[in-house]
Amino acid sequence: FFDVRKYREYFNSEDLKETAKFKAAVDLFEPGSTMKPITLAICLKANEELALEGRVPIFLPDEKISTSNGHFPGRSKPIQDARVHKYLNLYLAIQKSSNIYVATLVDRLINTMGEKWYRDALIDLFGFSEKTGIEFPFEARGFVPDFNKYYQNKAPEWSKSTPYSLAMGYNILTNSFQMIRAFSIIANEGKDVTPTILKKIIMNDDGIEKVLVDNTKNFDFQNRRQILSKSSCRLIKKSMKFITKPGGTSRLADVYGYTDAGKSGTAEKIVNGRYSKDKNISSFIGFVPVEKPKFVLMVVVDEPEKKYVPGLGPAQIGGICAGPIFKEIATRSLNYLGVAPDDPFGYPYPDPRSDPTNADWSLEVKYLAELYNHWNK
């Protein structure tokens, strides 16, 4: 770990310099599937604007949407899911992390609202490609493709296939603070969030304390801008509660005794100009407890070991490599903060506190499993 008291030693050593790097603010990555709840939030925002105009929504959360066809405009290869699903709704799509589902919604979105509306929403609602405002001047801005701009190889930044890539967290670069801010907006039911790494700076001069910086006044959410509607955020939070439960992609991230909501991501890294099948950026982001979150936590694993874990699956998957880290840090943090469990029966067998019939979300999980089996016979 970086010892700030010995910062000169770190910055004067090639071996230690990487340790001193503020990776959460300066390292950019394609977020992969952790972008999907944000995609849903944007589509729900479009629904609300359409409703104000008396127009038909682009989708309904409970709508039975076909996910058999992965062919989309501008793509030479079809989009695929980890496994084939015939039909999904919003909750099943997040639970199963369907690429085809979010691409289908974005196809409807751009055909109804336009590509510019979609791009503007990524920036105006969530601040992607802009600094979050943390007290660190070297924070990386990130990247959202732009119209009429080109990469160094002369290829256009925005092409016909770009919206579908953005839907599942590709063709966009973010830092961890940007993702945490986006999920904090959802966790806080649509209220704007300004991240900070400083609470106060106090100078003690001959026994007299002088407050140089005071960010505690920014902790009041009453007068914050309402970026998303409460109803949309509640829908998304509900969908993310399925992630760590049976049938979800991140069972290992389940924080026992507490309600949690989150999303895993497994993005292929670009190596020598091509997406690698061997190197990944894997992550899990979530918040605990769901109704009154104490924190949003993101775990990012750069190039996890690629191997198969019997009974679990590929070790490089975000839910498998980053999920358990999220669970451990979240559990310790909740204990440190003295947060009482809000799901007292949510423990695995043979823990004596375990009671699957009374555990939070058990009926919803059962219903969703029955619906999935009915739709995907």
Description:
The structure is a single chain. Helices cover 33% and strands 15% of the residues. The chain has helices at residues 7-11, 14-17, 23-26, 36-52, 90-96, 99-112, 115-124, 162-167, 176-187, 230-240, 318-321, 323-337, 362-375; strands spanning 65-66, 87-88, 200-205, 208-214, 261-271, 274-288, 295-302, 308-309, 313-314. It is globular and about 75 Å long. The protein folds into 2 domains: 20-192 and 229-240, 3-Layer(aba) Sandwich (Beta-lactamase); 242-377, Beta-Lactamase (2-Layer Sandwich). It starts with 6 loop residues before the first helix and ends with a helix. The strands form 4 sheets. It has a 3-stranded antiparallel beta sheet. The longest helix is centred in the first third of the chain and has 17 residues, at 36-52. The protein is an alpha+beta fold.
Brief digest:
By secondary structure, this protein is of the alpha+beta class.
Measured between the Cα atoms of the first and last residue, the distance is 51 Å
Radius of gyration: 21 Å
- What percentage of amino acids are in beta strands? 5-15%
Which series of helices and strands comes N to C? Answer: HHHHEEHHHHHEEHEEEEEHHH
User: Any idea of the CATH topology of the largest domain?
Assistant: Beta-lactamase
- Strands side by side in the biggest sheet: 5-6-7
CATH architecture annotation name of the largest domain: 3-Layer(aba) Sandwich
pLDDT < 50 runs, ≥5 residues: none
Net shape: globular
Give the helix level as a range of percent: 25-40%
Largest sheet: 3 strands, antiparallel
User: What average pLDDT do the residues reach?
Assistant: 95
| Name of the level-1 CATH class of the largest domain | Alpha Beta
Helix/strand-derived class?
Answer: alpha+beta
Strand tally is 9
